[in-house]
Amino acid sequence: MFRKALLAVLFLAFGSAALLAADLNGKWTATVESPRGTQTITFDFHVDGAKLTGTITTPRGDTAISDGKIDGDSISFAQVMSRDGNEFRIAYTGKADGDTIKFTRQFGAAGDRPAQEFTATRIK
User: Fold this and answer.
1) Which of 72, 75, 109, 119 has its CA 20 to 30 A from that of 90?
2) What does the alpha-carbon distance between residue 35 and residue 120 come to, in Å, rounded to a whole number?
């Protein structure tokens, strides 16, 4: 009997944590320093289980999120952009904590350029 009760409590605890972790839906904003100055980025996240989709809006326009994943409070996705006929990829990884996500983004292959860290906040 004790074992069944313990399993039920663990199931509820992990199930509740999964529901809280999936609460990344909606719009988030961040101010990021770039070589061109301060830039505002808006993320519009749509979560379906462990899958993340949506858009990223920058001063250059909207870009679809690709390869988006949610794992607990961790989030990862890519932004693929084209410029002058060249395609480049920005990889984002982050950790959610309530209404903030601490992000690291990497331009191109790791080591090409230094990673950049910033924090996004939920738009209410």
Assistant:
1) 72
2) 19
